[in-house]
Design goal:
By secondary structure, this protein is mainly α. The chain contains eight helices and no strands. The chain folds into two domains: 41 residues; 125 residues, no CATH class. Helix 6 packs across helix 8.
């Protein structure tokens, strides 16, 4: 839940990005961007590519955590730890029981080679699903991992909120 101050900061950041895109001629359909709509744009859309990729991976682990606690393949864990960091992975796995409401979507344990891809694709599905239909979805998701999966938007926003908490906690440590 955003505070009034956080909402204003978010709108100001979005407005700066939109103005920059408009000035460079890269803003498609500027008439769509009212202040009400600015407030609806998920914060991840404003992250730099590195932070967005990291959030994507953390979202993937939030979704997969309940399944991951049953994985036996140490190499798969190491591959995922490279995506999100060992401490974040351990914290997410320790909290897996508190991540109820996130329904498992895979049944087979991935091979080491596919573990990172699974995490990124699952996280991309969360981020993609957090967007509303009026938003320029193709443009906003262009840097995400490819995925055909989708979540209910309210579930995606809940997963995203959990992942953002882990990113903030990590940044504060």
């Amino acid at each position: 839940m955003r505070t009034v101050q956080t909402q204003r900061q978010h709108r100001a950041t979005v407005a700066r990005v939109l103005l920059s895109l408009h000035e460079s001629g890269e803003l498609d359909r500027p008439e769509l961007w009212t202040f009400e709509r600015l407030a609806q744009l998920p914060a991840w859309c404003l992250l730099d590519e590195s932070s967005r990729t990291r959030l994507q991976a953390i979202c993937g682990v939030v979704v997969l955590a309940l399944e991951m606690v049953q994985w036996l393949n140490g190499a798969a864990f190491r591959a995922v730890a490279e995506c999100v960091g060992r401490k974040v992975l351990e914290a997410l796995l320790d909290e897996a029981h508190n991540l109820e409401g996130v329904s498992p979507i895979h049944s087979a344990e991935p091979s080491c080679e596919h573990a990172a891809d699974l995490v990124y694709a699952t996280g991309a599905a969360v981020l993609h699903s957090s967007l509303d239909s009026w938003m320029p979805i193709e443009r906003l998701t262009a840097t995400l991992a490819p995925t055909d999966e989708r979540f209910d938007r309210s579930m995606a926003l809940a997963i995203l909120e959990k992942a953002e908490v882990f990113m903030v906690e990590e940044a504060n440590n």
